[in-house]
Amino acid sequence: MKKDATTNSFINPEPHVIISCRDKDGRDNALSIGFIANVSFNPRIIMIAILHTRYSHHIIKESGEFVVNIATEELKSEVEYLGSTSGRDTNKLENISTTDATLINAPLIDMCPVNFECRVVECLKPGTHDVFFGEVLKVHCDEKYLNNNKSINWDKINILHS
Prior knowledge:
With about 160 residues, the protein is mainly beta. The chain has one domain: Pnp Oxidase, Chain A, CATH 2.30.110. The chain has helices at about 55-65, 75-85, and strands spanning about 15-20, 30-35, 35-40, 45-50, 65-70, 100, 105-110, 115-125, 130-140. The protein has a seven-stranded antiparallel sheet. It is globular and about 50 Å long. The chain starts with 16 loop residues before the first strand and ends in a 21-residue tail after the last strand. This is Putative flavoredoxin. Belongs to the flavoredoxin family.
């Protein structure tokens, strides 16, 4: 038998990802989020949702670019830190290795096995979060997770779930 649940019961957001970005002064930042989804195959578009009060929100709004970094179970403490600390006053990436993205001006998080370089194509505010729709321009993946046809073998990656 089913009973009514509270209206604040949400679908459990998964996977947890790290969104990285760079501001106009060249300062890198990152935050962890759980609101992410694929929304289009052609063009390839990913949507992420970020509260407007978050520091990264301002950076992405201004730059129009971000990287989706897929987090693994081994990165749980880093994900918790990046989601609970503001980058306004702290360099959250000072102890995290990064590499410059190739098509956008933002960092890739090296310890994440998969990184998606995205350019914002639209932003909507349906409620508490702004939804950024990012066209995927390039995908980076650790070689050990690629199949012979260069597709990502997601079953081999220990993706962080809640």
